Amino acid sequence: MHFHLESAFGEILELHVQGLRGFVKSLRYDLFTENELKLHFDDIGMTIFDQDRILEGWRVDKQSAIVKIRKMERLLNYQRAEDKLREANNFYFLNLLYISDVVSEKCKDLLANLHKYMNYLDPDLYKTQTSERLEEIKKLRQTILPEKRNSVRIEMQKELRIE
Question: In a 3-state reduction of DSSP, which class is residue 121?
Answer without folding.
Answer: coil
